[in-house]
Design brief:
This protein is mainly beta. It is 10% helix and 34% strand. Residues 35-72, 183-202 have a biased composition (Acidic residues).
């Protein structure tokens, strides 16, 4: 019901005051010329009622003072006002960002990461965009799960001017756990909380380059050999091999001076002439150093290391003039490798072949195949990422059959795939990056008829057309390359147009 204020002049007097003796008492009016018995108590409004009787909000109805409103009409009016107020105060619900469904961001819009789904998330700004990145193995141990974390990286720039390009070796330390803690969670370790508040530390060393680097790869045997052999495929067609052992040592040895010789490549591969390329991979099984390089003319060269020098096979492996977009050594046989080309074929080769021709060729996509990844846990599994946004997983044992089909195929992304990588510690997990500015994580072990997932898909409409194997979507502008850290389970490093992301999600 509405409240009306008491008349200002009661019985012709302006000297009215109300006193409340107790919580439940009616206000007593003290007048000069009138008694309480002569007054209509119902005409008074208790000025202290809001303070003492109820904490609930009073909703005033905009009605004329002289008009009375029945109780039913008043209640409806109150309900309408309450509903309107709730709608105004209600915050917009957060939406799931889906690259194939969500509308493009406006000029003033940005995507903010949900800190509750990341165990660790750090951004590293660089002077220029980098098309590629790789991880330097370290001596800090395997299966590291404690924080703060430390990672060693190698990347190279795509500068506006060729002379400004650099090879960058870096150490990122004091990478803290960024998972948001529940307000109800008790602090068990004050020392650990102090570590979580520290700022990351970034140490870098740069080596000048004369051209943009299309791809960089670090020899996986560096930790054992002590030589951090790092190959860069340049857009001028040359492949440079650096030893970053001195840079790695300088990060952990105060006062150590990096010799000038470490700023120069220890070997340059010029077999490709002036033809640039993207295919580049070190053998995971040949510790002395075996490097495959492929160019856009379809040629693949093998470079091996002898006791005194590096030797490049003068006869290239060749099957088609289509560009070699990616190369992967077999994880189980030291003479076998695979290539992906712009003609849509995945080819399996053997370095012992005198004809330098592929042993197997399979049409894997109607579009370019941009990237491939050979599973280190199950060496008959190979993943391929395509220019039409699809990606597939293949069982190489089926390649001897005519027109084999992939064991898994996904079309979630609608833009070209730029990188694909099996998790080295879990054969069922795959990271995929795309030109739609996302990195997606997938778990191939998830069954499509899982009851919990089916229930979630029924309850949330946004999940209806999302494959149940999709674990996570990470947004990064112009993402180009993504690599798993083999010594920190679940940790990834991805590079894009605005620098590097070092991150770990709660999903893996």
């Amino acid at each position: 019901m509405s409240k009306r204020a008491a008349d200002e002049n009661l019985n012709g007097s302006n000297n009215a005051s109300s006193l409340k003796a107790s919580e439940n008492a009616l206000p007593v009016s003290v007048q000069n010329d009138a008694s309480v018995d002569d007054m209509d108590v119902g005409e008074f409004e208790d000025p202290y009622g809001d303070d003492f009787e109820s904490d609930e909000e009073i909703i005033e109805l905009d009605e004329q003072e002289d008009e009375e409103m029945d109780e039913e009409t008043a209640n409806k009016k109150i309900e309408e006002l309450e509903k309107k107020e709730q709608e105004q105060q209600q915050e917009p619900e957060s939406e799931i960002y889906l690259p194939h469904k969500s509308k493009p961001l406006g000029p003033d819009e940005v995507l903010e990461a949900d800190p509750t789904v990341y165990e660790m998330l750090h951004n590293v700004n660089l002077p220029w965009p980098c098309l590629t990145v790789d991880i330097l193995p370290d001596n800090l141990g395997n299966e590291r799960r404690t924080y703060p974390a430390t990672v060693y990286l190698a990347t190279a720039t795509q500068a506006a001017k060729a002379k400004d390009n650099e090879l960058i070796a870096m150490k990122a330390s004091s990478l803290v756990k960024t998972l948001v803690k529940d307000d109800n969670e008790d602090d068990e370790d004050d020392d650990e909380d102090d570590d979580m508040d520290s700022d990351p530390i970034l140490d870098t060393d740069t080596t000048p380059l004369k051209h943009t680097t299309n791809r960089i790869r670090v020899n996986p045997h560096s930790q054992q050999t002590g030589e951090y052999l790092t190959a860069t495929m340049s857009e001028n067609g040359d492949v440079y091999i650096f030893d970053l052992a001195s840079q790695f040592k300088a990060f952990d040895t105060p006062g150590f001076v990096i010799p000038k010789s470490s700023k120069r490549p220890i070997h340059t591969i010029r077999a490709h002439g002036n033809v640039e390329g993207y295919g580049l991979d070190w053998s995971p099984l040949i510790s002395t150093g075996a490097l495959l390089t492929g160019d856009v003319s379809g040629r693949v060269h093998l470079t091996t290391r002898t006791s005194s020098s590096w030797v490049t096979d003068k006869t290239p492996f060749f099957s088609s003039q289509s560009s070699i977009e990616d190369i992967q050594w077999s994880t189980g046989e030291n003479t076998v490798f695979s290539t992906a080309g712009c003609d849509g074929y995945v080819r399996i080769w053997d370095t012992r072949s005198k004809k330098h021709k592929p042993a197997l060729s399979v049409k894997a996509s109607d579009s370019d195949i941009n990237v491939i990844s050979w599973c280190s846990k199950i060496n008959h599994l190979l993943a391929s990422g395509h220019d039409d946004g699809t990606w597939s997983v293949w069982d190489l044992r089926n390649f001897t059959q005519p027109n084999p089909s992939p064991v898994a195929n996904y079309d979630f992304h609608k833009s070209p795939i730029t990188s694909i990588s099996f998790n080295p510690l879990d054969e069922s997990i795959i990271a995929v990056s795309s030109e739609d500015n996302t990195v997606t994580l997938w778990d191939l072990a998830v069954e499509a008829d899982d009851e919990e997932i089916s229930q979630q898909r029924r309850e949330l409409k946004e999940l209806h057309d999302i494959p149940p194997q999709l674990l996570f979507v990470h947004w990064q502008k112009d993402v180009k390359d993504v690599r798993w850290h083999q010594q920190i389970p679940g940790c990834l490093v991805s590079t894009g147009g605005e620098g590097l992301n070092i991150w770990k999600t709660i999903s893996v």
